[in-house]
Amino acid sequence: MNRDTRRQIAVVLAFTAMIVVNALASALPLNGKNTGEISDQFAIYFVPAGYVFAIWGIIYLGLLGFTAYQALPAQRENPRLREVGYLFVLSSVANIVWLFLWHYEVFTLTLIAMAAILLSLIAIYLRLGTGRTAASGAERWLVRVPFSVYLGWITVATIANASQLLFYIGWGGWGISPQTWTVIMLAAAVVIASLMALTRRDIAYLLVLVWAFVGIALKHTGAPLVVNAAWVATVLVGVAIVASLLRHNPTPRKLPA
Predict the structure, then answer these.
(1) Phi, psi of 87 (to 5 degrees)
(2) Is residue 44 part of a domain?
């Protein structure tokens, strides 16, 4: 068995383990609480309505497509897949670790696990060359788009996780109200979205942020400042999406097969 085959098998095993643990986390559930029940223990505003978390179904479906695609014999020596295979394994292990830490309420370490997921996905994204290099239709839909969606959601989840941890340790916010901090975080997310629109024209990533912002607006109807800021953020990212679609797209650099 050569190293490429070992990498393909490792990706399949990592994906399978991640799906099984995530399913058990809800079915058992781990430590007697599901993920959403634990999240509801934190009175923070940068958390969207419950229906928004259905995006995990889309993420896992996309990652299933990636896992199957990279396992094909024809993709065994694909240079992009060689570069991202073990990074995906790392992100899957970090995903599993985060679930155990979250469910057993070791909140101080959850942000480290979340950061590991985020950094591994950023590395995958950069190595894939999304928005910078050309790719076949299959690779675009089965590799690039799934990781764009996953990275978009983990961007939101990392901000939420940091907010939850700060609430848990009793951080006072330097005298700034929680609603105002939420506005600041939404503004930061819009800046990130704008950079992605300008440098990558990544519609899939941007749509995830729109999905999350709408969920935040709909959940916190009793906090007008948060609601208004979330709708403004939604509109701004929507404008970035339209601008990305209308902007001239230079011919991407071709990658070796």
Answers:
(1) -65, -35
(2) yes
